[in-house]
């Protein structure tokens, strides 16, 4: 464990993981209901499901950055380069996807934009469009890189090895979602959803357990660490 995993950082990680757990579960339920409402899997999800999903992403994105910042503080010093790169990738994802979904929420239904077919190439959340391409870049590339970079910092205990395996699976599945772009079939992109929603939910739950079990570095000194046997 790293020597910067202080009490406030530990609390930040626990709170962020809890927020992600609740929001991701709500996202999964909403997504399932949205898919169930479609006549064809190729159709985009409509309202009210789409708006709820957009709002949940705006909650998830900053919480995911905070979670990875806590992972960085937990990481042993010799592996901090990997965890720092993972944080950077998550920041890139959060910045990009927050901008994309905020723009969609605030502009798509404005009188000046609504009903203009020419704007579909920019704001319609369906393939091909600018916002959809940016979202794919964020979740299927930046998110995947964040998971794969962070995975090697975990190991040793069974919990650590399980977190590492879950991160690798999450990142690999997210990358696999790029098949949707390669073959021009967005149904294949659903593979990525299994990575950044299903597998990441497992990662988040395991990290929550790790942070709860791990004792924070005492504030009286910074060079030593005190961790419970489980970590």
Summarize the structure.
This protein is mainly alpha-helical and 231 residues long. Helix content is 68%, strand content 0%. It has helices at residues 7-36, 49-74, 80-107, 120-123, 130-150, 158-176, 179-182, 190-213.
Q: Which terms would index this structure?
A:
mainly alpha; 8 helices; elongated; disordered C terminus
List the helices and strands and how they pair.
Blueprint: H1 7-36, H2 49-74, H3 80-107, H4 120-123, H5 130-150, H6 158-176, H7 179-182, H8 190-213
Molecular structure report:
With 231 residues, the protein is mainly alpha-helical. Helices cover 68% and strands 0% of the residues. It contains eight helices and no strands. Helix 3 packs antiparallel against helix 5 (130-150). The chain is elongated.
Structure classification: mainly alpha
Low-pLDDT residue spans: 220-231
Radius of gyration: 19 Å
What percent of residues adopt helix (DSSP H or I)? 55-70%
User: Main beta sheet, described?
Assistant: none
Q: Return the string of H and E elements.
A: HHHHHHHH
Number of strands: 0
Calculate the terminal CA-CA distance, rounded to whole Å: 8 Å
User: Outline, from the CA principal axes?
Assistant: elongated
Q: Roughly what is the average pLDDT, rounded to an integer? A: 86
Tell me the β content: under 5%
**Number of H/I helices:** 8
